[in-house]
Amino acid sequence: MSAPGPFLALSNGDAEANNILLHDSGPAEARLIDFEFAGCTHALTDAVCLYVPGPAWLTVGNPSTTGLADEYRHALALGIPEAEDDRRYGDGLAAACASWALVRLQRFALLDARSQGDHSRLQLIATLEAAADTAQTCRALPHLTTWIRRIATVLRHRWPDADQDFADSASFPPYRARH
Q1: What values do phi and psi take at 41, rounded to 5?
Q2: What is the pLDDT of residues 99-130, one digit of tens each?
């Protein structure tokens, strides 16, 4: 992530669903907002929000089944042709998602002190598992992926109230805000 090579790009630094405004005319009229973290970074850090829940606790579903993953990659490849290389793209995407999950894991002590049923615990487990799923799909970072899955399992045991099936689309539909 620290040496993005051709994937170096200008980013608003906070590409989340709640930082994009859409006009009634459709997605062609989308505008990014919230530039307080703007700067040049690895372009695939902006794709993390498609795969891993963000701080607003939005579940994201599977962008590969909706076509969103292909749309993002195609748009990125228009400016960064190296995005067409499966290995480079997969390694970068897996690293970006794992990096985000590890940043969120730093909140463990805070979340551990919260009361049973706090949704932030669910979010952390969902974040870890989504990052591991993305890395596994990309066939990248196998040892780190195993470690992330182990941490998620430990947290499911430590927080029995957060031991839920996130694949159940009825309970966790994509892009639904959590309280």
Answers
A1: -155, 180
A2: 999 999 999 999 999 999 888 898 899 999 99
